[in-house]
Structures are given as C-alpha cells and as structure tokens.
Design brief:
Layout lengths: L1 E2 L10 E4 L2 E5 L12 E5 L2 E4 L5 H11 L25 E5 L15 E5 L26 H11 L6 H11 L51 E7 L24 E5 L18 E5 L7 E2 L3 E3 L4
C-alpha cells in the first residue's frame, strides 16, 4: 500500500510492508552474508525512494544542520586518516584512464576537500539539476539526524533486506532498470562518462512493491551496528579503513550502488552488506527512512 507521508515533515511517500518471515542472508555469495537464517519482521512503512537532495536541503534549511564531512575530523579521534583527509571534504569516485588492479579501491577514490552533499564532486560542483537525485556524502549520523527531524527512523538491516527481497526479482537480475556499472570498471562506463553517476531517486521502474532503486544507485544506511556473520567483509566498495575506526560504531550499508559491476562487486542484491564508520561518508552513499507501525 502506498501512503502519503502525513506522519512527518518528509514529502516522500511511504510503502506499507506487512509483517512476515523471510530467509535473511545468503550461503551462496560473499562470506559476510552467511549464514542464511529465518527472520520474523513486524509490519512497518518504508520510504518509496531514497532521500533526495531537495528533501535534505529542506531539512538543513529548517534545522541549520551541518553534516559530518563539513566538519574538521579530529586527529585524536581518527588517527588513521592522513593529514590532508582531516579537513572538511569527502571521498569522490573518479574514473581511471585505463584498466587498474581491482583489489585497490584507492585507485578510483580521491579525497576532495570541500566535497559534501551540496558539492558532490567538490568546489565548483553543485546539486543544481539534481534536486531529485539521492543525497550523497551523508554519514550515518547525518541520516539519523534527518530521520529524527522527519519523525521517522532508519531501517534495521532485517527491515531493509525484507523490503528489498519482497520487491526484487530472484537473484536480483541486473536488468536495465538497475543503476549499476555498465562496462569495464572503473575506466569505461557504457551509460555515462562523467558525474553524476547517480540517477533520480524514482527513476528506476518500481517493482511490484513500488519501491524504487532498492538495489544500485546508492548504498543505504541501516541502524544496525556491523557484526560480521562469517568473516570480515573485506569490502571493495570504499577506500576507508574500517578496521582502524574503533572510536566509532561501524554500521551496516545495504543495496549496492552505481559502482557495482558484474566484473568487480556483485553486491546489488538484498542480502549483500558492507560496513562503514558511522561518521564517515562517500559519494555513493545515501539512505531512506522507515516508520515502525507499532510506534505510530
């Protein structure tokens, strides 16, 4: 059921997800997804699409909120960060001019001073014309602040995966509606040749559950701390050192992004998961919110 978001300040429609049971995780893919197990989920509502730049701008204008990547990083808080990465800014994906080793994400990620949600690629870039694209460079802390302001919550990993599993085809076939990498990663993209690599939050053809872009486009925060199920994820998706980020809770991200490619990172599936310290962000990370019906 598609509901108008009358419970909050957010204009995003809510989709009601009935209570149910599903098999969470996978024994057939990356080791951190195991073990597959039966999980019960109570009824809830979830945003039909990710929070957009326009949505986030309204939040910032109303609250005066300043995001994580617009602050200086504390050297004592995150000693593993190089000096140049402690200034305000964010990680921005950059296509390489030729094939590179796919085991080193630092080759296609660059820390750009001044990159933030308003300036996704750094100074000189803007969200003009991208008002309906998902907001990026949003940390977990930023996402939680928005959700609180909007009268909503962030989804648990189980809620997110249950909603995605209900709205996805088996094995998440990489059909044309998914915004994932098309071509030879990370130096040739058959869809675009420059930023933005995101597409509008509602651009993908909605599934039978009316949920847009649950897979691909941007990774999405969940409220759960990250605990490896069978092994450390060894994520290929970011250039951050999550092992060294002991000062901050590491959270679960779901759904894959525009950087997922069959030849590189097949994480555009409901059960896939990666980790990220909650005060960090990047140019391929966003979020959507939920309303827990038992609390309304």
């Amino acid at each position: 059921m598609r509901l108008t978001a009358t419970l909050s300040k957010s204009p995003t429609p809510l989709i009601e997800i009935p209570a149910g049971s599903f098999v969470m995780g996978s024994d057939q893919h990356y080791p951190e997804e195991a073990p597959a197990r039966q999980v019960n989920v109570s009824a809830f509502c979830i945003d039909a699409h990710t929070v957009t730049n326009a949505d986030f701008a309204a939040f910032v204008q109303d609250s005066g909120y300043v995001t994580s990547c617009e602050h200086l990083f504390d050297a004592t808080d995150q000693p593993y960060l190089p000096k140049e990465a402690r200034q305000p800014g964010g990680l921005v994906f950059q296509m390489t001019p030729h094939p590179v080793r796919l085991t080193d994400p630092h080759q296609w990620w660059a820390f750009i001073p001044g990159a933030c949600w308003r300036h996704p690629e750094g100074p000189g870039s803007s969200i003009a014309g991208r008002e309906n694209h998902p907001v990026v460079h949003a940390s977990f802390d930023d996402a939680l602040a928005y959700a609180t302001w909007a009268g909503k919550s962030l989804p648990t990993e189980a809620q997110w995966e249950y909603a995605a599993a209900r709205s996805s085809q088996p094995e998440a076939k990489s059909g044309p509606e998914l915004n994932i990498w098309r071509g030879a990663f990370p130096y040739r993209h058959d869809r675009v040749s420059a930023h933005p690599f995101t597409v509008p939050a509602e651009s993908a053809q909605p599934s039978f559950g009316n949920l847009s872009n649950m897979l691909g486009n941007v990774w999405e925060w969940t409220i759960d701390p990250y605990e490896p199920m069978a092994a450390k994820d060894g994520s290929c998706c970011t250039a951050t050192d999550t092992c060294a980020a002991s000062a901050h809770t590491v959270r679960v991200l779901k759904g894959g992004s525009y950087l997922c490619a069959d030849s590189y990172c097949q994480r555009y599936r409901p059960s896939a998961r990666i980790s990220m310290p909650q005060n960090e962000s990047a140019g391929h990370i966003g979020f959507r919110c939920v309303v827990n019906l038992a609390q309304t």
